[in-house]
Design goal:
The chain is α/β, with parallel strands linked by helices and 288 residues long. It folds into two domains: 161 residues, Rossmann fold; 117 residues, N-(1-d-carboxylethyl)-l-norvaline Dehydrogenase, domain 2 (Orthogonal Bundle). Helices cover 52% and strands 13% of the residues. The protein is built from 13 helices and nine strands. The strands form two sheets. A six-stranded parallel beta sheet has the order 3-2-1-4-5-6, sandwiched between helices. Strands 7-8-9 form a three-stranded mixed beta sheet. Helix 1 links the parallel strand 1 and strand 2.
């Protein structure tokens, strides 16, 4: 059945996710820090733009957000004019931002204090997956809250899984980013090795992609890496943030992440060269 929903932060990920909810027949109120983006979204999808997160959240049974980092998420939830001010008891807040498990637990506790539910639900699949409605959602929170929002997540996720209590979704997203970072560095080194060895790198990829070396990154990023095209995709700036979160958590729980630490340094080097907005596959440029 159609529901009254709110969606906060209409960036590269948030705007298409909100669009999928609207196309499924739900009534959305939206908010964005840059008001013109909210107005443009409403012009394209219907619904209404709100002046504050709290105003967007009023009368919404579920409020979604896809913000930038810990500080931004705190502001749109528990800050002055934040969503928690406008949400009615029993409403659910769904956070698609990649943030620390620490801030997730903090905000989940604040939500419970106000009689609200909170689901941390970071996603994997990138902007392309968001547009196609083909994301994977890693969720944390109570089982009841997750079951409540699961049909809504299905509007843009091919798979959504609850992995434990508050923070579990964010911890799983850290695992996701750790694995991707290592794969991209290995892929960059392999492609550059093939070029330096005088091989047809494209032909090599076509062969090994069907064996044990095959991966999503190889299938989707090797062709553009060989063309030296990096002006799209998941930005280096965001990967630096995500790996930083994972490394902080690893220091807390005692996990050893030597490769992740090395790749984080390489992404920092890309940032220092002005490549913060390039796709994460631009690691290849450091090998030239």
């Amino acid at each position: 059945m159609p529901e009254r929903l709110a969606f906060l932060c209409l960036g590269a990920m948030g705007a298409p996710l909100a669009g999928h909810l609207a196309r499924a027949g739900h009534d959305l109120a939206v908010w964005n820090r840059t008001a013109s983006k909210a107005s443009a979204w409403v012009a394209a999808h219907g619904g209404r733009a709100a002046a504050t997160p709290a105003a967007a959240a009023r009368e919404a049974s579920v409020v979604f957000a896809c913000s930038g980092d810990d500080a931004a998420l705190r502001e749109v939830t528990a800050g002055a004019g934040g969503a928690f001010e406008g949400m009615a008891p029993g409403a659910v807040f769904v956070d698609h931002t990649t943030v620390s498990a620490e801030v997730t637990r903090e905000l989940a506790a604040e939500a419970r204090r106000r009689g609200l539910d909170f689901v941390d639900a970071p996603v994997s699949g990138g902007e392309e997956g968001a547009k196609r409605g083909a994301l994977t959602v890693m969720a944390g929170g109570s089982e009841a809250a997750f079951r409540r929002v699961e049909p809504l997540l299905a509007c843009y996720a091919v798979r959504a899984v609850r992995l434990g209590p508050s923070g579990a979704g964010q911890l799983a997203k850290m695992v996701n980013q750790i694995c991707i970072a290592g794969l991209l560095e290995a892929l960059a080194e392999g492609l550059r090795f093939a070029e330096r060895a005088g091989l047809d790198a494209r032909a090599v990829v076509e062969v090994i992609a069907h064996g044990a070396a095959g991966s999503w990154q190889m299938a989707n990023r090797a062709p553009t890496m060989l063309e030296r095209r990096f002006d799209f995709g998941f930005a280096v700036d965001w990967m630096c943030k995500d790996l930083g979160i994972a490394l902080v958590e690893a220091r807390r729980n005692g996990a050893s992440l030597p490769v992740t630490a090395l790749v984080a340094e390489r992404y920092a080097a890309l940032q220092a060269r002005g490549g913060g907005r390039l796709d994460t596959s631009s690691l290849l440029t450091l090998l030239e």
